[in-house]
């Protein structure tokens, strides 16, 4: 039997499905993991039953993973702090963590979205609240469902940072026999791809819910990738990033799997279920909804065309019907596929 080397303490904030899955990866790699949640009831359930019944029911948690509501205790002595709060809560969680975060702690985040009010990326939000250089922060992204990671099914992701040493530290922390990790210096590209693919996944759910076929899905993914690339490069990303794990990889997995919250939400919207009811029935954050609003504003700010995003915005926030949105997309003026041609 292989002995896992003890790597010290790690803090994971917060205890949703993705946070719990990544906490399990770290625990399996030799970390004593403190998994922070706001709910005392939630923490007690995880510590007593050794499962996270709220988000990942029926899957045993490692013995070296402990849930806590004490932020100071969670971060005490942590060599790594992983932030997995929803984009809407990231600033508040970071503000609460800041007084207890030790100077040498590696900061990683695995949240896919923008801050709605400021349109800022999550590395920027963390940098501001933690008083850390944005260049030192690592983002983890890529095609990865928590439901599969927690069951140790083969998964490949990317960690991005302007600081190669920080990225490699994160790579070493998360790499395992079932969780393969690549490094990438393009933080902007990885964050933009991770955020915008959720919008396209909403569209994929709508398409499937309306009964459209594989032709429509293929078109949606391909032109969705064009929108991701268009906005990302305008914001300073490397176009090659969008052909990799954070781009096309994550886009495919999120748009084709029923594990995807965004796909499920889009599918429910297709039958006329109001957005408020969809979100209530989901019971978890659907990042694509907030991201659609943010991306619609970013498209204006950077003067880029994002027709899929614009039509989804009209469905979510302007009471347009999904079928009308599809007709609008199909009825657009003819254009070239290769961007440079016009």
UniProtKB/TrEMBL annotation:
It catalyses: sn-glycerol 3-phosphate + NADP(+) = dihydroxyacetone phosphate + NADPH + H(+); sn-glycerol 3-phosphate + NAD(+) = dihydroxyacetone phosphate + NADH + H(+). Catalyzes the reduction of the glycolytic intermediate dihydroxyacetone phosphate (DHAP) to sn-glycerol 3-phosphate (G3P), the key precursor for phospholipid synthesis. Belongs to the NAD-dependent glycerol-3-phosphate dehydrogenase family. Pathway: Membrane lipid metabolism; glycerophospholipid metabolism. SUPFAM superfamilies: 6-phosphogluconate dehydrogenase C-terminal domain-like (SSF48179), NAD(P)-binding Rossmann-fold domains (SSF51735). Residues 11-166 form the Glycerol-3-phosphate dehydrogenase NAD-dependent N-terminal domain. PANTHER family: GLYCEROL-3-PHOSPHATE DEHYDROGENASE (PTHR11728), GLYCEROL-3-PHOSPHATE DEHYDROGENASE [NAD(+)] 2, CHLOROPLASTIC (PTHR11728:SF1). Its EC number is 1.1.1.94. It comes from Paenibacillus glycanilyticus. It is found in: Cytoplasm. Residues 1-23 form the signal peptide. InterPro entries: 6-PGluconate_DH-like_C_sf (IPR008927), 6PGD_dom2 (IPR013328), G3P_DH_NAD-dep (IPR006168), G3P_DH_NAD-dep_C (IPR006109), G3P_DH_NAD-dep_N (IPR011128), NAD(P)-bd_dom_sf (IPR036291). The keyword Signal applies. This is Glycerol-3-phosphate dehydrogenase [NAD(P)+]. NCBIfam families: PRK00094.1-2, PRK00094.1-3, PRK00094.1-4.
């Amino acid at each position: 039997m292989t002995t896992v080397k003890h790597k010290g303490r790690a803090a994971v904030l917060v205890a949703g499905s993705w946070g719990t899955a990544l906490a399990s990866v770290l625990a399996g790699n030799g970390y004593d993991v403190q998994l922070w949640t706001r709910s005392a009831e939630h923490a007690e359930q995880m510590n007593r039953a050794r499962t996270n019944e709220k988000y990942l029911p029926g899957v045993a948690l490692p013995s070296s993973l402990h849930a806590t509501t004490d932020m100071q205790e969670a971060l005490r002595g942590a060599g790594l702090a992983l932030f997995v709060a929803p984009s809407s809560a990231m600033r508040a969680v970071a503000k609460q963590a800041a007084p207890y975060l030790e100077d040498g702690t590696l900061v990683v985040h695995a949240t896919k979205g923008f801050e709605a009010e400021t349109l800022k990326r999550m590395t920027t939000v963390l940098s501001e609240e933690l008083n850390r250089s944005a260049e030192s922060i690592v983002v983890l992204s890529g095609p990865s469902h928590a439901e599969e990671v927690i069951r140790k099914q083969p998964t490949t992701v990317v960690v991005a940072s302007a600081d190669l040493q920080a990225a490699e530290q994160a790579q070493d922390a998360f790499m395992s026999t079932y969780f393969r990790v690549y490094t990438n210096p393009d933080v902007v590209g990885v964050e933009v791809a991770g955020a915008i693919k959720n919008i396209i996944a909403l569209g994929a759910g709508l398409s499937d819910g309306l009964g459209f076929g594989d032709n429509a899905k293929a078109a949606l993914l391909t032109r969705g990738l064009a929108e991701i690339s268009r906005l990302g490069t305008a914001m300073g990303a490397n176009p090659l990033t969008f052909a990799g794990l954070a781009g096309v990889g994550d886009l495919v997995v999120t748009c084709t799997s029923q594990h995807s919250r965004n796909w499920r939400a889009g599918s429910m919207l297709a039958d006329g279920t109001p957005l408020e009811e969809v979100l209530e029935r989901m019971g978890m954050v659907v990042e694509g909804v907030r991201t659609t609003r943010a991306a619609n504003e970013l498209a204006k700010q950077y003067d880029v065309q994002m027709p899929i995003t614009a039509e989804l915005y009209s469905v979510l926030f302007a009471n347009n019907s999904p079928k009308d949105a599809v007709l609008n997309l199909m009825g657009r003026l003819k254009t070239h596929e290769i961007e440079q041609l016009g």
